[in-house]
Specification:
Distance between the termini: 63 Å
Strand content: under 5%
Order of helices and strands: HHHHHHHHHHHHHHHHHHHEHEHHEHEE
Structural class: mainly alpha
Number of domains: 2
Low-confidence stretches: 2-10, 15-35
Shape: globular
Radius of gyration: 25 Å
Strand order of the largest sheet: 2-1-3-5-4
Helix content: 55-70%
């Protein structure tokens, strides 16, 4: 993604000799003594994200468990629920395999206890997240300068949604890390082609080729894990394709070979695991883009990402990001953000996590704005005793993001996580024989957290081929008492029943009639999300197992 050199008026006044295109800040990455700086950034990121992972105790999106950990648990231990997407060949095993390997290691070390089964996957994802933080720092330093990189890292670590989401085992989280790393190597190739980062033309050519191949390999992996990542890389590739001199070499000796290798490896893995010949990226795009299959789970208005979704994610960093976009005049990267938001807006089904990969880029522009303010502060030293604009901005960002990050990660919708941790400990002590979840489908983790092979049943919500047909989850919510009596009878085949407090009052008489008594109650949320207030999660158990 090519970009022009900026004059001093296009950004924050460079510190020291960073104004030159050959300044130490622009060339430091190739000097061995500069590695210490990146190591310190990585060490900080590792420590921060580890704490981040340990503080995330809430439920956000079913895919974190049902499309990754549940599948990984089945691969590693032989049992786990496979949702309808896997039966239709819409998902690749590449992402779950990472966590299946982790589960195998835990089992070999006899560490597959309830606590480790819950926390180890997020701690592993925290390592990936910290690598993403490092590459965002390096990308900011490469495009702008070291001061912008430091403020970008501040923005990345403080932003509430990044804290809330990046250590979760969603494919979007790993896609975000790969996107930032890939963009760093892509920009490195561009800078190498200009000869601004190396000392000879031969070295420039070699570095350009190597960096671009790494970028393409990372891009291919991102697309393999999340096929819609092609939206990002289509923009990146097409904008710079015009300026690439050896177009045929680029396409036939770099793009096609690397893409083919990654596609072949992932396809072979999927064929082996599915036991049949499936092309997952094709099935995924056909279902989600061409047939709008995702609309089954709800739709939003066209402008939702621009007016609600992305502003909620970037939160109070939004005005700083807009300021940074205007000041920096880095239109290609800001154009990438607009492109991704625009393309995803075409789809009816929208979710916050879909556009997570461009959130770090927006936070980089916020870092640019904060860096510009810090330079302004340095030039205006008068006014002692008063807080500067920069200090007020930092206070505002911390006060509006840190409490929200902690609340959303520690409290909001934590009951469905707590109840499975409780059932896991009870099952390992032999006090759970079978479980029925009378709640909207996929409301809780499943075998990946329970880690005990016993009968469990939840309300199915597989999309029906017949339009207008209600699934079990919808039928239960319409009439909890009638549905429960009709489908499950006297409930005697279950030792434990889990449900939300909002539905408890509708079937309490059935539970008491069948000798079920309340065993535990877990706080879930203070306010509703998209249904009635689900303030708590309740566990009922048969009188004979209390």
């Amino acid at each position: 993604m090519s970009h022009r050199r900026r004059s001093h008026t296009a950004g924050p006044p460079p510190a020291g000799d960073e104004a030159s295109s050959h300044s130490p800040e622009k060339t430091r990455w190739i000097r061995p003594w500069a590695l210490g700086s990146d190591r310190r950034v990585l060490a900080l990121a590792l420590a921060f994200r580890a704490a981040n992972a340990l503080l995330v105790r809430t439920y956000f999106n079913p895919d974190e468990h049902w499309q990754c950990l549940e599948v990984a648990h089945r691969v590693a231990f032989g049992y786990g629920h496979i949702t309808w997407e896997w039966k239709r060949g819409l998902r690749s095993y590449l992402h779950p395999f990472i966590f299946a390997a982790l589960y195998k290691i835990l089992a070999l070390l006899h560490l597959d206890t309830p606590w480790f089964m819950v926390m180890a996957p997020r701690l592993l994802q925290s390592v990936f997240a910290s690598i993403g933080d490092l590459y965002l720092y390096k990308l900011s330093k490469l495009i702008f300068n070291g001061q912008v990189a430091q403020w970008t890292l501040f923005s990345q670590l403080i932003n509430w949604f990044m804290f809330f989401c990046i250590t979760r085992t969603l494919s979007n989280s790993l896609e975000t890390v790969l996107t930032v790393a890939g963009l760093y190597y892509w920009f490195t190739a561009i800078e190498s082609s200009k000869g601004t980062l190396v000392v000879s033309k031969q070295q420039a050519t070699a570095n350009q080729s190597a960096s671009r191949k790494v970028a393409l390999l990372i891009a291919a992996l991102a697309c393999a894990i999340r096929p819609t990542s092609a939206i990002t890389w289509l923009y990146v590739g097409l904008l710079d394709f015009i300026q690439i001199k050896s177009k045929c070499r680029f396409v036939f000796l770099e793009v096609i070979p690397l893409g083919t290798i990654v596609l072949a490896v992932t396809t072979f893995l999927d064929w082996w695991m599915y036991g049949s010949q499936v092309i997952v990226p094709l099935n995924f795009l056909k279902f989600n883009l061409f047939s709008s299959g995702g609309d089954y789970y709800g739709t939003h208005v066209f402008h939702w990402y621009f007016t609600q979704g992305f502003p909620s994610m970037i939160w109070t960093f939004l005005p700083f990001a807009m300021c940074g976009i205007i000041k920096s005049q880095e239109w290609r990267l800001s154009g990438l953000i607009a492109w991704v938001l625009g393309v995803y807006s075409i789809l009816g089904h929208k979710e916050f996590r879909f556009v997570l990969p461009v959130l770090p880029l927006a936070l980089m522009f916020s870092g640019y704005c904060l860096a510009a303010m810090s330079q302004f502060k340095g030039k205006n030293v008068h006014g002692k005793g008063r807080l500067s604009r920069l200090q007020l901005s930092v206070i505002l960002l911390i006060v509006t993001n840190v409490p929200m990050a902690l609340y959303m990660s520690l409290f909001h919708q934590r009951g469905t996580e707590d109840v499975m941790f409780y059932l896991s400990k009870e099952a390992h002590d032999g006090r759970v024989k079978s479980v029925l979840f009378l709640m909207p489908c996929h409301s809780t983790p499943y075998y990946s957290t329970l880690h005990y092979n016993l009968p469990m049943r939840f309300l199915d919500c597989t999309p029906s081929d017949n339009e207008g047909t209600l699934d079990e989850s919808d039928r239960f919510l319409m009439s909890p008492s009638d549905f429960t009596g009709e489908v499950f009878g006297n409930l005697s085949s279950f030792s434990h029943i889990v449900l939300f407090e909002s539905e408890e009052r509708h079937i309490l008489h059935l539970l008491l009639r069948n000798s079920f008594l309340e065993a535990r109650r877990f706080f879930h949320s203070h306010f509703k999300v998209d249904r009635d207030l689900q303030s708590s999660v309740v566990v009922y158990s048969r009188r004979d197992v209390l």
